[in-house]
Amino acid sequence: MTSMQKREMWPVMLTPFTSGGSVDFDSLARLIDFYEETGADGLFSICQSSEVFFLSLSERIKIASFVKKHAHVPVIASGHISYALEDQADELRQIADTGVDAVILITNRLAEEGADDAVWEDSLHYLLDRIDPAMPLGFYECPTPYKRLMTLDQLQAVAQTGRFHFVKDTCCNIDTIRKRLAVLEGTQLKLYNANTATLLDSIRAGAAGYSGIMAGFHPELYAWLLENYNSQPEKADVLQSLLTMFAQIEKQLYPVNAKYHLQQKGIITSLYTRAANQRGMTPLFMDEVRQMEQAAAWVKESLAM
Q1: Which one, of 185, 193, 129, 120, lies nearest residue 150 by Cα?
Q2: Residue 274's CB: how many other CB atoms inside 10 A?
Q3: Element (H or E) spanning 9, and its range?
Q4: Distance between CA atoms of 146 and 150, rounded to whole angstroms?
Q5: How far apart are CA 298 and CA 305, in angstroms?
Q6: Hey, is 193 helix, strand or coil?
Q7: 0.70 exceeded by the pTM?
Q8: How do residues 63-72 score in pLDDT, each as one tens digit?
Q9: For 240-280, what is each residue's pLDDT tens digit?
Q10: Which three-class secondary structure state does DSSP give residue 77?
């Protein structure tokens, strides 16, 4: 990948709910518009930020279909959460039938924690044999229920199949990312970093872009970094440092805090979240989110955005 190629931002999509707990499709439509208007190059639906492990299969299908229908950028989606591989294959086929541009495999679904690589690789072959070979695929190193990072040999092997185009990297280690990029060089498999702290170093090393939590808070700043990191390196260095500090909010009460932030913008209506208790969003946490947004607004003004 050359330095002249565009770096892309693929936000990981939240799932808005009504106060009664059902999927809020009106808010979801506004959320799609928000991501697109702030520089998204594509959307990653039905991922951990979407609360995938708390959605029924019917909900996962409806959400993926809705996002694909309403978006003006490419849409990718995961959605296999079962333990049995036969059930996972069915889930993935149904996600593919929604018309999304790529189906993303969650790495920890292919083997239980502690299982050796051979088990993971056998599971992958099982699923690949049951997914339409014309469907573009990707990988997501989802941290829940446990994080399973792909080895360099596995990345090289899947890249050589020609079926994989997207990998959401969650290793959070720039040395590992550089090694992964060296393995993927010259292939169609692109690496998207989910970690803010290593983002600038990773895109300078050849990563394809960003696909992480903080694109739900201030995507404009990530879009600016990805577009201007090469032409304005000094400003990019300062922005990277600020983004790393802002990203500490991930440790607070995600995704409730992201929903609070978007509620303040009038994009979603309810803080209802299945993956976390919204009552944990204390006044202190709310104030921290508001102060972060004030700082982000100052940064945007400084960059003449």
Answers
A1: 120
A2: 14
A3: strand 8-9
A4: 13
A5: 10
A6: strand
A7: yes
A8: 999 999 999 9
A9: 999 999 999 999 999 999 999 999 999 999 999 999 999 99
A10: strand
